[in-house]
């Protein structure tokens, strides 16, 4: 019984960890603008993140070597350094977006401007970082984040024409009035929103933080194989309610309040309460994940001692870097920079950075000196190679598309 | 049986742990010495941003090495002779504790003593 409960908690945590401000904004934005024409991208992305998270988690569980250890080893000092700098900056940018996300969530409930909440959120983040054990931290946001399922339930409440919806999903087309480059731009955004790089960094480093060993491989696999697809269903739910409620009314998503509008239309105040709870928990979880990930990447590149589960005095450089990153991100958020714009750019550039972390993972996951009998099977390798091509193609077209569409206009 | 070791792939950029499993850094550079016949052989591992910066080279590398040298007060990286290396595998394991390596993890100790211990709760682990 206790083991079943532990396993279920792990899965719930994975679902909560999957959702972040990127999902909440881009799913609603894309649903309102393109209807269900990008559900297929969500499915593609969720399979990809599942494959690579499992691989990175397996490598870290067996060898205690998380992603940026492998990046340094396989890409060498120069390319590895470039990779770690870019990844750190993207993490920090995502952190800004998530901090604003928590604050915007609280704004929805309190009507007090989000900028007043940002410093408070940062302070709570610091206390959780400094004092709350890793496991409790994960469970806290993982479980409360499940309130986001109100978005999925709302699909039924809005009473859609299921046949027409299925047709839209299986026959995706560019809506009239939108150009193909814009469609492709948002397809890359969607890819990045579901395949956020920090999820892989965090999952592999988390395996070391949990002290997982070979006997925990089953739990690790369960978390990604069940948790991430359920997270994907949540993402599709947000797209579907936006397509049902916002698209016909011609509402564009420019603020988080518009993301929750469909839930309010379906369930009123109760729906809003659930959505706000879910949003605050999920984005707060992502604040912690992106913040820790920025510390993980740098510490692992330079070979410092790292870890939230260590006493900060035993990982001084890591702890100081994490605090400095939190202060910097809070300052950037307080410049009144538009959180939605930040989110879109962080997610988009994140998609472009994926090949550089996926390649080292794929190589090491095939190395018997590291993994012995636990090297990749044929399925993992086939999917791994396919997805390496997918993310490389996305990375190649990312910058030209960004310029051609002026950032998705 | 002697095993062939590709130092570029299997030694450089690997994580270095001391005899108690504490991180020392990465193998940032290698030091070659001449043996009696004048052939170059591996003599020591060089660890630290001074070594890494010089290896990377260019503006970025020189800046990294320069800043690290200023902070440490010396442009010498930590040099670990091959005799103190216990095992070369997925990680490089030393046969000595990190405390016995002069000048290792200087920044770590400085930040620990000057910053982290002054923040309440910094001494306790959370697990």
Model description:
With 409 residues, chain A is mainly alpha-helical. Chain A has a domain at 2-23 and 40-127 and 184-235 and 283-404. Helix content of chain A is 79%, strand content 0%. Chain A has 16 helices and no strands. The radius of gyration of chain A is 20 Å and the shape is globular. Chain B is an alpha+beta fold and 127 residues long. Chain B has one domain (8-118): PRC-barrel domain (SH3 type barrels). In chain B, 28% of the residues lie in helices and 25% in strands. Chain B has four helices and seven strands. Chain B has helices at 7-10, 49-56, 58-72, 106-114; strands spanning 15-17, 23-26, 29-34, 40-47, 78-81, 85-88, 92-94. Chain B has a four-stranded mixed beta sheet, with no helix packed on it. A three-stranded antiparallel beta sheet of chain B has the order 3-4-5. In chain B, a hairpin with a 3-residue loop joins strand 6 (85-88) and strand 7 (92-94). The mean pLDDT of chain B is 88. The chains are: A mainly alpha (409), B alpha+beta (127).
What is the count of DSSP helices of chain A, taking H or I runs of 4+ residues? Answer: 16
Radius of gyration of chain A: 20 Å
Class per helix and strand makeup of chain B: alpha+beta
Overall helicity of chain A: over 70%
Shape of chain A: globular
Q: What's the SSE pattern of chain A?
A: HHHHHHHHHHHHHHHH
Unreliable parts of chain A:
none
CATH class group of chain B? Mainly Beta
Note the topology.
The complex is a heterodimer of chains A (409) and B (127).
Chain A: H1 2-18, H2 21-34, H3 39-63, H4 67-110, H5 114-131, H6 134-144, H7 150-157, H8 162-170, H9 180-194, H10 197-209, H11 217-245, H12 256-302, H13 316-333, H14 339-364, H15 368-371, H16 378-404
Chain B: H1 7-10, E1 15-17, E2 23-26, E3 29-34, E4 40-47, H2 49-56, H3 58-72, E5 78-81, E6 85-88, E7 92-94, H4 106-114
Parallel strand pairs in B: 1-7
Antiparallel strand pairs in B: 1-2, 3-4, 4-5, 6-7
Helix pairs in contact in B: 2-3
């Amino acid at each position: 019984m206790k083991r079943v409960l532990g396993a279920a908690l792990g899965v719930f945590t994975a679902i909560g960890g999957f959702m972040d401000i990127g999902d909440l904004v881009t799913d609603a934005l894309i649903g309102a603008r393109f209807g269900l024409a990008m559900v297929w991208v969500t499915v593609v992305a969720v399979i990809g993140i599942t494959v690579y998270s499992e691989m990175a988690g397996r490598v870290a569980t067996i060898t205690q070597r998380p992603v940026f250890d492998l990046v340094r080893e396989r890409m060498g000092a120069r390319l590895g350094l470039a990779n770690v700098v870019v990844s750190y900056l993207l993490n920090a940018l995502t952190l800004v977006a998530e901090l604003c996300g928590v604050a915007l969530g609280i704004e929805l409930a309190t009507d007090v401007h989000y900028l007043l909440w940002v410093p408070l959120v940062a302070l709570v983040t610091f206390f959780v970082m400094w004092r709350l054990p890793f496991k409790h931290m994960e469970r806290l946001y993982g479980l409360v984040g499940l309130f986001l399922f109100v978005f999925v339930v709302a699909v039924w409440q809005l009473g859609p024409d299921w046949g027409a919806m299925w047709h839209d999903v299986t026959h995706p087309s560019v809506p009239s009035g939108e150009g193909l480059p814009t469609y492709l731009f948002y397809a890359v955004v969607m890819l990045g929103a579901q395949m956020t790089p920090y999820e892989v960094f965090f999952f592999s480093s988390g395996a070391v933080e949990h002290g997982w060993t070979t006997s925990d491989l089953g739990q690790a696999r369960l978390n990604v194989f069940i948790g991430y697809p359920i997270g994907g269903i949540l993402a599709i739910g947000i797209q579907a309610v936006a397509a049902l409620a916002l698209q016909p009314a011609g509402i564009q998503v420019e603020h988080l309040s518009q993301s929750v509008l469909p839930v309010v239309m379906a369930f009123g105040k109760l729906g809003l309460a659930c959505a706000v709870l879910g949003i605050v928990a999920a984005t707060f979880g992502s604040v912690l994940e992106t913040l820790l990930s920025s510390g993980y990447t740098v510490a692992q590149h330079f070979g410092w001692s790292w870890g939230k589960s260590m006493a900060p005095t035993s990982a001084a450089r890591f702890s100081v870097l994490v605090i400095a990153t939190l202060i910097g991100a809070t300052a950037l958020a307080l410049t009144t920079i538009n959180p939605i714009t930040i989110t879109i750019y962080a997610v988009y550039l994140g998609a472009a950075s994926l090949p550089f972390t996926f390649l080292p993972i794929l190589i090491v996951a095939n190395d018997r000196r590291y993994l012995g009998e636990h090297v990749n099977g044929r399925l993992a390798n086939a999917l791994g190679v396919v997805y390496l091509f997918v993310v490389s193609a996305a990375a190649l077209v990312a910058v030209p598309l960004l310029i051609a569409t002026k950032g998705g206009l | 049986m002697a095993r062939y070791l590709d130092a570029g792939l299997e030694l450089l950029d690997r994580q270095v742990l001391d005899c108690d499993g504490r991180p020392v850094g990465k193998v940032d550079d290698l030091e070659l010495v001449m043996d009696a016949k004048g052939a170059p052989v591996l003599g020591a591992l060089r660890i630290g941003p001074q070594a890494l910066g010089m290896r990377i080279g260019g503006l970025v590398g020189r800046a990294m090495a320069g800043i690290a040298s200023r902070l440490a007060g010396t442009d010498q990286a930590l040099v670990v002779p091959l005799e103190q290396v216990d095992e070369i595998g997925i990680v490089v394991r030393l046969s000595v504790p990190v405390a016995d390596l002069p000048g290792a993890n200087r920044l770590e100790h400085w930040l620990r003593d000057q910053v982290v211990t002054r923040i309440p709760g910094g001494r306790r682990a959370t697990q």
